[in-house]
Amino acid sequence: MSTIILVSLSGFSQELKTKSKSSIGDNVIYFIKNKPVFKEELVAIKPEEIESVNVVKRDTLVNNIKYTGQIFVILKSPTKKE
């Protein structure tokens, strides 16, 4: 059974297909500047402000809540903006 995950960042979207149920799913924690944030904060970021995105598929505990994945967003520094 295939699972389709749609990742969307302020108009930028990419479809990812996996063949197992071990995909990250909805139980993900997002980090911006190494601080946990809600998904709404992530979606509010303009794509040109993002330097990189790292996805980690590993169980983790944050504030006694279990998450199945982490998404780390690194923003460009003000001097790096083009």
How would you concisely characterize the structure shown here?
This protein has 82 residues and is mainly beta. The chain has one helix and eight strands. 6% of the residues lie in helices and 51% in strands.
What does this structure look like?
The structure is a single chain. This protein is mostly beta strands and 82 residues long. It has one helix and eight strands, in the order ββββαββββ. It has one helix at residues 39-43, and strands at residues 3-9, 12-18, 28-32, 35-37, 50-56, 60-62, 65-67, 69-75. The strands form three sheets. The chain has a four-stranded mixed sheet. A two-stranded antiparallel sheet has the order 1-2. A two-stranded antiparallel sheet has the order 6-7.
How is the secondary structure organized here?
Layout: E1 3-9, E2 12-18, E3 28-32, E4 35-37, H1 39-43, E5 50-56, E6 60-62, E7 65-67, E8 69-75
Parallel strand pairs: 3-8
Antiparallel strand pairs: 1-2, 3-4, 5-8, 6-7
**What characteristic shape results from the CA principal axes?**
elongated
Distance between the first and last residues' Cα: 42 Å
Low-pLDDT regions: 1-22
What is the residue-mean pLDDT, rounded to a whole number?
76
Count of discrete alpha- or pi-helical segments spanning 4 or more residues: 1
- What is the spatial order of strands in the main beta sheet? 4-3-8-5
Q: How large a portion of the residues is in β-strands, by DSSP E?
A: over 45%
Classify the secondary structure makeup into a structural class. mainly beta
**In this structure, how is the largest beta sheet organized?**
4 strands, mixed
CA radius of gyration is 14 Å
Helix content: under 10%
